């Protein structure tokens, strides 16, 4: 309110002299005292006091307007024809400035502005002619309706042709109406400026008030958190922690049952006699199936080796008829797992597959009795959504059933199978133009039967796979004991990137790996015997330019060979695992010296792994 009152008073103070001029009234208006730099505004015909008497007092003109005291450098604004008090009247004379400024020729309606103290001279008559002062400025001829803007302290006389200041100053002329418009515009600008300042003050006040509220009203406690925020907090907790938190209050319990917190659920099905893991309570399983089944998207089952655990898991699967799963993962801690009852498992799995049409993208069915008819149903129902399939150690599935999956599910880019299920037809289906680029292919080479022989895959099929999927991660895990089991592997170029030898591997096989596995990125050798592998490992380091990880278990190697491998691979070798007890010191390097050299080549502190000992 104080700001608005100040704006109104300022507006009235500016407009009142203008209204007095336009109405030719003589109401005495007292202007406030002004500084020497303020302009002096006088109406036409006003007669100012003597300049010699301006020592701090106001000047009162005949029409009643009191003008402030000003210095000689101030401007005097007077209508054309006004006559100021003069000690030496220069009536009828023209003014020519002495400062060397020549005014331009102008029409009678133009304004004339001259500096204080300028002395005018007549160059031509005032009947439309120009006035040229000694400084070269040509002033326009004013009309009687124009106003004269002169420095404060100038003395003017009037004749029929114009205004001549006693000190030589020529005025600046304009019309009465124009000065009214000018003053009103100025007042409007001040009003707008004041209004803008008022808006800023209001915004500042509001911000200060908000800061005060934050200062004196701290955030609410946990019990007042919104459901959205509390749900976000709950999402970082595991299920059992969320369950305990739900007992705090009714509000937290309601948030606990929100759908977004039930998209993922892990069923633990175990028996006390066969597992130390805690099983999911039966009451909770019932609650999930009755209240949150339609919210489930990511489900996993973990069971132990007890037959009853597999039966409970199959019962849960058979009841999931209203869900739309995206991922389903079946895991077991020990065999025989789901192998106990093939028909029961297949029936339960088909319920989930059918009840979640076109939604399943990831399916892990390792060590289950899934068969080819189930794979065919999966291919037809989820051909547009399935991207990951893990069916290793599934004896009831065949290469034909997996090939059907590859033919129909063209978005499949991650596949884990046994090597026995790999075929030329399957690789051809995975390498078709309409099939997406394969990102991950894991092959488990396991020999359950001693009489079993591994079938070979042609070099052309491996080359086709490498061309179709150049960034493929091909993982091969070997769990074989006989040297003859490697006969069909590494005889030509193979796009393998990760090799894991879980059992025995001969020096001759490692030599073939160095010659034909140029894409090799990681290799782990768990056991080899007592024969040092210096030459084979150096060959792999030289030919496998992308090698980044090397792990050596029960296999001997000399310290000098490890130093050379580190020198060849350099900082690219980000993981180097070697047990200290398998290192053989030689004439060049002891274990300590070898450790120092290897650390230098790898660009980081490195040391061999120590086997822990217990008393």
Polypeptide structure, described:
The model is unreliable at 21-174 (pLDDT under 50). The chain has 16 helices and 22 strands. The chain is of the alpha/beta class and 615 residues long. The protein has helices spanning 2-23, 176-216, 227-234, 239-245, 250-256, 282-291, 307-319, 342-355, 372-381, 399-408, 424-430, 459-468, 507-516, 534-543, 559-569, 591-602; strands spanning 29-30, 40-41, 59-60, 65-67, 75-79, 147-151, 156-159, 162-165, 264-269, 298-303, 327-332, 362-364, 388-390, 414-418, 440-446, 473-479, 498-501, 522-529, 549-555, 557-558, 575-578, 583-584. The radius of gyration is 50 Å and the shape is extended.
Indicate the low-confidence ranges by residue numbers: 21-174
Largest sheet: 12 strands, parallel
Tally of alpha and pi helices: 16
Bin the strand percentage: 15-25%
Q: Please estimate the helix content.
A: 25-40%
- Structural class, by secondary structure, is alpha/beta
């Amino acid at each position: 309110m104080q700001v608005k009152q100040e704006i109104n008073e300022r507006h009235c103070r500016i407009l009142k002299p203008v209204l007095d001029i336009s109405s030719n009234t003589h109401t005495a208006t007292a202007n406030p005292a002004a500084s020497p730099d303020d302009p002096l505004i006088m109406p036409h015909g006003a007669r100012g006091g003597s300049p010699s008497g301006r020592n701090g007092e106001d000047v009162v003109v005949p029409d009643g307007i009191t003008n402030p005291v000003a210095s000689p450098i101030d401007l005097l604004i007077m209508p054309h024809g006004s006559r100021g008090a003069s000690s030496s009247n220069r009536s009828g004379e023209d003014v020519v400035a002495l400062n060397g400024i020549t005014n331009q020729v102008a029409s009678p309606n133009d304004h004339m502005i001259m500096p204080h103290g300028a002395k005018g001279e007549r160059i031509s008559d005032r009947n439309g002619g120009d006035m040229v002062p000694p400084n070269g400025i040509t002033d326009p001829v004013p009309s009687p309706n124009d106003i004269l803007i002169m420095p404060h302290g100038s003395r003017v006389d009037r004749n029929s042709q114009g205004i001549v200041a006693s000190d030589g100053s020529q005025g600046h002329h304009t019309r009465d109406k124009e000065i009214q418009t000018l003053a009103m515009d100025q007042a409007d600008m001040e009003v707008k400026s004041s209004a803008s300042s008022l808006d800023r003050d209001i915004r500042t006040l509001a911000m200060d008030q908000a800061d005060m509220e934050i200062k004196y009203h701290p955030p609410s406690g946990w019990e007042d958190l919104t459901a959205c925020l509390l749900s976000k907090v709950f999402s970082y907790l595991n299920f059992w922690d969320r369950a305990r938190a739900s007992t705090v209050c009714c509000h937290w319990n309601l948030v606990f049952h929100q759908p977004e917190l039930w998209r993922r659920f892990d069923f633990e099905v175990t028996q006390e006699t066969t597992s130390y893991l805690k099983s999911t309570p039966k009451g909770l399983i019932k609650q999930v199936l009755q209240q949150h089944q339609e919210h489930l998207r990511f489900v996993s089952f973990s069971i132990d080796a007890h037959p009853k655990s597999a039966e409970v898991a199959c019962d849960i699967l058979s009841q999931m008829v209203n869900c739309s799963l995206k991922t389903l993962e079946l895991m077991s801690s020990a065999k025989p797992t789901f192998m106990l009852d093939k028909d029961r498992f297949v029936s339960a799995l088909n319920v989930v597959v059918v009840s979640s049409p076109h939604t399943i993208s990831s399916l892990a069915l390792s060590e289950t009795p899934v068969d080819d008819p189930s794979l065919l149903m999966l291919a037809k129902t989820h051909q547009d959504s399935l991207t990951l399939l893990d069916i290793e150690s599934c004896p009831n599935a065949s290469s034909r059933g997996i090939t059907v999956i590859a033919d129909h599910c063209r978005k499949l880019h991650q596949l884990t199978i046994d090597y026995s299920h790999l075929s030329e037809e399957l690789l051809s289906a995975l390498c078709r133009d309409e099939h997406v680029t394969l990102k991950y292919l894991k092959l488990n080479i396991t020999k359950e039967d001693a009489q079993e022989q591994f079938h070979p895959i042609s070099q052309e099929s491996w080359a086709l796979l490498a061309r179709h999927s150049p960034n493929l991660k091909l993982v091969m895990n070997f769990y074989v004991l006989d040297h003859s089991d490697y006969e069909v592997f590494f005889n030509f170029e193979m796009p393998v990137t990760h090799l894991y030898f879980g059992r025995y591997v001969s020096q001759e096989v490692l030599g073939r790996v160095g010659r034909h596995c140029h894409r090799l990125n990681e290799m782990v050798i768990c056991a080899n015997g007592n024969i040092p592998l210096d030459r084979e490992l150096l060959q792999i380091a030289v030919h496998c330019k992308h090698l980044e990880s090397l792990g050596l278990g029960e296999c001997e190697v000399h310290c000098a060979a490890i130093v050379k491998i580190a020198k060849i691979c350099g900082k690219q070798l980000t993981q180097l695992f070697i047990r200290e007890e398998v290192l053989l010191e030689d004439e060049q390097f002891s274990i300590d010296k070898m450790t120092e050299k290897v650390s230098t080549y790898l660009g980081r502190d490195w040391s061999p792994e120590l086997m822990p000992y217990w008393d």
